[in-house]
Here is the input.
Amino acid sequence: MPTPTATWIDGVRAEALPLPDRALAFGDGLFETLLLYHGDPLFTELHMQRLQRGLQVLVFPDCLATASEQLQVAAGAVRKLGWPWAALRLTISRGPGPRGYAPPVATKPRVIISASELSDDCQQMAAAATLSLATVRWPTQPALAGLKHLNRLEQVLAAAECRAAGTDEAVMLDQSGQVVSVVAGNLFLLHEERLQTPVLRDCGIAGTRRRLVIEQWATALGLPVQESTLSLQDLESADEVFYCNSLKGLRPVASFGQRHWSSHTVCQALFEQYQRGLP
Amino acid sequence: MPTPTATWIDGVRAEALPLPDRALAFGDGLFETLLLYHGDPLFTELHMQRLQRGLQVLVFPDCLATASEQLQVAAGAVRKLGWPWAALRLTISRGPGPRGYAPPVATKPRVIISASELSDDCQQMAAAATLSLATVRWPTQPALAGLKHLNRLEQVLAAAECRAAGTDEAVMLDQSGQVVSVVAGNLFLLHEERLQTPVLRDCGIAGTRRRLVIEQWATALGLPVQESTLSLQDLESADEVFYCNSLKGLRPVASFGQRHWSSHTVCQALFEQYQRGLP
Here is the structure.
């Protein structure tokens, strides 16, 4: 059975995108994936802050207030639909435009929102994940690193590899072979009571939950966190590994290839911090 | 007045794209821009060869025959519309799919074709172009280099810079500062009766007209061509510079910053080779 889904374009229920559209043509836009609990979007401010940074870098006209309003409209509709947990994808496209790469002089961005019911109880920590290694690597692009823009082919290809490998997630490296992330989440390694997470200077997405771990949850537990250049050896020698994203919160890692982890103590403790922020 | 345009999805005239669509969500797809003369697509085989390579790399089901058929349908319609010259954009999206990066197990690619009338007489060589330098650089991604996929944010940003600079085109560099291309075209430099063009190992698009210059037109003139790593100094010290793309064929370069070129002899001779291939 397909997942129940509802879509809005510029605040109106829609089933099709008017053409032309630059997000379709060039990936010219940004997105956010928000977790909704009974129609309430969680950690909205962090999502909007990342979106705002992206709008600035891509030189979009300011449409953050409009996007926020339309998010509330869609969230209200999800509330009425009675979905306990939902994933809401908020996409901002640069909108229509004439042929060619150059953005139109008078840009009218479009807000495309799609909400899907989730079957999981997102208040519970997911079972520990198995990881494989994706052969496709992140591109080197410091100008766009950290942003959640619409150019996501590497993650698409890595997700296909992950499925073929039969694991829950796949580790993605940068062009020099350093560890960056999993396909849909930021990685954290525990080494001697210290957390480390890959620095996102040249690639990767700066996740909202990554930010919460660094700025709030680890601090609450008295755990130091460092953004570092991390190798596969660092990953394999870690005492504990977990990843985070907006839908799962934090998820412990059970294995990466032949390496297995049975302790998920720190992830569990951080998940309890996360749970406190849930409604 | 907006350019007359017509759009087809899966062979049927359309004005909107059914949602969800993975080209919109992730830039999960490929495209080609073909030049049509009275409804006849030019150099179709080269476009289809690049498309086929892209379909393989992105692990799409083989849909080349379908795309070719739909190209013919659209081209036939353009013929009836009576447009002397037209640009036809053929986009292949991975099509619909559930939430998340992983491609659907049963992928049904979509063929989206959009044709626009061109006001230029494409049988004539365009006036020599002025070039500026874009600050945004190509991402390093050998796995996708050469392909015309839908992740094109860098060219969008470079095109915006180019407009702000007031030039016809902008030079784009790779992450190490070597010359790769202009925003919408491949560059060629003449040094002492030899042509050089940037090697596209880590980034850039392997243009159909670039291939024709290398494999046919330069040979016809007895000019050696080399794919090389090329610096800004190599560009500035060139005896002659031109770029090529599917709509302009070859276009001479008049200036890059303070450097001016008045001789376009080789570009002119190559353009005559190109003209012979036109109907």
Observations:
- Chain B has two domains: 5-117, 129-277.
- The domain at 129-277 of chain B is CATH 3.20.10.10 (D-amino Acid Aminotransferase; Chain A, domain 2).
- Chain B has seven helices and 16 strands.
